[in-house]
Structures are given as structure tokens and as C-alpha cells.
Amino acid sequence: MIAQAASTFVPPEVQWFALVPLMVVLGAGVVGVLVESFVPARARRPVQTVLTLGALVGALAVLVVQGWQWFGPEGTGQVLVLGGSMVLDGFSVALQGTILLCAFLAVLVVTDRTSARQDAFAPSAAAIPGSEYEELARRRGLEQTEVYPLLLFAVGGMLVFPAAGDLVTMFVALEVLSLPLYVLAGMARRRRLLSQEASFKYFVLGAFASALFLFGTALLYGFSGSVRLDGIARMSLTVAQDAPGLPEGWVLLWLVGILLVLAGLLFKVGAVPFQAWTPDVYQGAPTPITGFMAACTKVAAFGALVRVVYLLVVNAPPEAFDAVKAALWTVAVATMLVGAVVGATQTDVKRMLGYSSIAHAGFLLVALLGFNAQGVRAVVLYLLVYGVSTVGAFAVVTLVREVGPGGEVVGEATHLGQWAGLGRRSPLLAASFSLFLLSFAGIPLTAGFIAKFSAFEAAVRGTPYTGSATALVVVGVIASAIAVFFYVRVVVIMFFSRTVEGDGSTVAVGAGSAEDADGRGATAEEPEPHATQQGTPQRSSVVVAEGAPAVTVVRSEWGSLVTVAVAVVTVLLVGVFPQPVLDLVDGLTRLG
Amino acid sequence: MDLSNYLVLASVLFTIGAATVLLRRNAIIVFMGIELMLNASNLAFVTFARMHGDLTGQVVAFFVMVVAAAEVVVGLAIIVSIFRTRGSASVDDANLLKS
Predict the structure, then answer these.
(1) How much is the pTM?
(2) Where are the transmembrane segments (chain B) (predicted)?
(3) Which of A94, A169, A511, A563 could link A588 by a cystine bridge, Cβ 3.0 to 4.6 Å?
């Protein structure tokens, strides 16, 4: 019997070449774990840095070769790996490239210790904040270089996520990308309580969302007998033709299943009503990680969302399509409005960027709801532009720091009031941050304008079957107008608001948290920005008052600087000469 | 016995798990709710596999178990580190971050 089993065993056919980028990234992650065990502490940091950056560049290079081979002038078309568990079409290759590029830029920020000679991570993340052990670890100059392998594992999951051809691969990829991020979110060097709390919230809500996704997958499997996206789509078309022999209510199984799967994915992109974690995690996580997460997770999750929407929702049983479409429309409208309106009331830079990312998720959903090929191209372009400028924006945030009582540089100055007068002290930094904000706002001549325009254009066109989404675009334009207000407000604060001290070298803010060097005082409650300002009359919601930590701009070693420079160049180039990028995206996604 | 009873059981377990996550305050119990949701999905997968006469659902259940185990490792680590800092595992106490 065993012999018989052996003779009928069919070994799976694996396209190893197609998997090379993934294996490079995950393999480097495994090697990184070994480096932690076998390389002496002093050498770990440079080794990990080189390994991580090298793996990302290598994977990107192989991806470019693959893209040329499959989708170039003599392209062979899409590749199905493991019988369709991974679908490497132009769309997924484009998104994987975006993810690798953004991850590379984000890792550059992670490696940057700045002129303060400290990275953004706790010297020993397992130590209790404020404990003697933590103090000891800090004085010994320990570093948590496990960050790099964790980043690589997360990137590995992200590469699979938009390429997943079945819901189980998608689920595993979702977890592989999420689990390292939960840990990374809790490793901030300063404000460790906030960081741990962010990590905890992210974990609980994230695990809840993946459980929803999984149960939805189970229901869709029950509906169709397959977890393949194309298998499920084929089955729902069969139901559409009134296949005999199916029990009543079979379509309901599809409907509940798809709504649960969409809920799981919408959580990852941070769409309302699943946005609750976004501002908290963005604020609490170490800033370089926030940049990584904001850019790469959104790219990966939107990739998966596009696949599910274009394969499952578009091929829905006809009586169920309208229900799902209505649900997605509601989510898109709520996401844009909540992101823009609540974002306008924020006083913390990282929280504000969090709400901005929620609003952008809404704009991306608008592009998606055109349900046409143009929408797919718009999503790819939008994600590229949004991802690069987000990494750049968070890189700037890492450089604006508070100064402790002893004159030493401590945590980031994230309160908006502390950014007053930044334009005078560091004109270049402030100018690049303004450029990113204007690109987020979609001002012409920046990349954001091109991206937003193509997204809205795709939605207006729609398809004959689904109709156009003009109403959504109207809401989108209104939400953009509200969002412009809070982006421009930051620009005004940086360039046109006066600082308290005449010399303009330091800015005092009543809201700063009184922490001593290195977060030893992290157990002290973080004061709420408004709490200390009640007595003094102020002219705006973002106030500058006396008696709090001064603000300085630290010099980047080189990583953050390169990231900001690349992001600035990208935003300007795509904004002024969009044609090459449009052609590239067009060429890649035409076949997909 | 009718196989659909297992599906009813899976749905009930999933609902109990979801309610636990949304209503309970202790982080460990919230976490147990999540595990219950994952295992309810497993039960649904295995039942559907039987109904369709197809092995996929059973294979998926194994994948889910592995993922759930990994999630336990990360989740408990985070909860323990929070507990050691604050001396409490209540979800409500973690409220420093707000708008």
C-alpha cells in the first residue's frame, strides 16, 4: 500500500526562479537571527545593517529582472507559483517593487542613529520601563538589533500578501507580516509605556481582524469547496445561473463570508470603522517603524484588497453584488470624512499623519470602486506615491527632537506647537516636510496630484455593469479640501509662526513631556497636550507657551537624509514629469 | 447526525469568542476569545471539508493551528510585558493614547 501511495505521489512543481526575491528576503531574515546568536555584540549592528539593506536591494534587483522577463517587450505573461497559490502578474510585481523600495528607505531611517548617537529602539525591550535593569542596559550601550530580522520577516509577508492567489496563503501572509509589526511597535526607546500600549492595541485588534478574515474564508470555502480566489469566483458565477441542487440561502454564505474577509482586509488598510488602532499605533510606535508600517503595510494590504474585490466582489452572485457595493461605498465615504475631519483637530504630528493615512485609505477605496482596469493602475500609482512620501515624512519627524534639562537630546518633539519656526532653523528639512504635506494634499506639480487625479478619474469612468462612482468622487473632493486645511496649517506653523524666544534657536512648548535622558522617566504619565495650558489664553489650538523642553534638530548620520532626499526627488519628478512612471505602471498592469 | 449542526456550533463558538473580545476587560480573557474565534473557524473548515468530500479544509486547519501558536507566543509576550510594567492586565487601564 505504501508502495502504491509512493507511485501515485505527484511532486509539486515549483517555479523556484519566481520565488527568488521572497527567498532572499526571508533567508536574510533567518541569517539575521543566526547573526544575533553568533556574532559578537559590537559587530552585530553593522552586520545586520548590511545584511538587511543588501537583501532588500538584491530582492529588488531580481524583481526588476523578473519584471522585464515576464512583462517586457517579449514578456511571457503572468506566472502561477505552486499551482496558483501565488499569482505573479504585473500588478503584484509592481506592488512588490513598491514594497521593497519603501522598505529599503524605511530601513535607512531605522539604521540612522543621528548626531544623538542613539537609535529609536529600547536598549533592551524586555526590561521593565524605569527599572534598574533598563538603566544598566542603557549605560552598557546595548542595542536591540533583532529589529532588522523582524523587519525582513514582515517584508517577506508583505511580498506574498498582494500576490496571494488563495485565501489561505493570504491569511498566512497576513500573519507573517503582522506578527513582527506587533513586536516592533512596542520597542520604542522613549515613551515606552505609550509604545507598549500601542503594541498591545495593535495586537488585540489585529488578531481580532484576522480571526474575522479566517471565519470569512471558512464560509467562502463552504460556499464553493475551494479556497482559490478563481475557484470561488467560478462558483459564484455558477450560482448566478441558478444551478440546481444548491440549498436555499447558499448566496447568504457567500455574502457573510465576503463581508468578513473584507472586514479583515479593511482593518489592515485602516478604513473606518476599523481605523481605531491607526492613530494610536502611529503615535506610540518608534517613528522609523511607523514610517515602515504606514507605507509598506498599506501597499501590501491594498494589493490583497484589490485582488479580493476584483476577483470575488466583481464576480459576485448578482443578487449579492449591490449589498457588498453599498457596504464598500459606505466605508469609503466614512473613511475619507473621518480621516479628514478628525485629522484637522490633531495636535500631534504622528497622530495627524495617522489620520492622514486613514483619509488616503478612503481615496484609494474610491479608485478601487471604479471596478475597472484604470482603477487598478490608479491604485498602484497612488500607493507608490503615498508610500514614498510617507516614509520621507516620518524620516523628518525622527530628526526633530526635544532637548532635556541637561542639554541632552531626548525623544521626538511631536507636538505641533514645537514645530513652530522650524522653517527658520532648518529651512531644507521644513521645506521637504512641506513638500510631502502638499503632496498628501494633492496640490498640482506634486506627485500626490497626479495620483489623486488618476484615482478620481478611474472612479468617474466606472464600468457599464457597475456604473460610475461620481458621487464618491464628489465626497472625495470635499474631503481633500478639508484635508488641505490641516496640511497647510502645519506648513504655516513651520514657516510663519513666531517662537517665544527672540533668537529663534529654541522653541518652548507648554505641552512637552518632562522626560529625562533616554526614557528613564517613562513611567511618568504622558501629559495630555492641552492639560497644562488652561491658564494661559492662546490664539490658536496649536499653542506655544513657556517652560517646557526646548526643541532641536539633530543631524542625520546619512540614512534619514538619503530617504528624505529620495522621497523629495520622487515627489517632484512624478509631479512634474509623470509620464515615465505612468507608462511603467501602465505597461506592468496591462497584462495582469 | 446532520453535519450542519457542526456549522451551527462553529458559528455559536465564533460569536461567543467575538463577544468575549469586545466585552471582557482582562487582556488574557480577550486573548482567549480570539483563540476561540480561530478554533471556531477550524471547526467550520473541517466540517465543510467533510461536506465537500475535499481535503483542503483539513489542511487549512493545520495551517491555522500553526499560525495560532505563533500568535500566542507574540501575544502573551506583549501582555506579560505590559503586566510587568503596570501590574495590571486590564484593557481599560491601557488608555494613555487618545486623541
Answers:
(1) 0.90
(2) 6-23, 28-48, 60-83
(3) A94
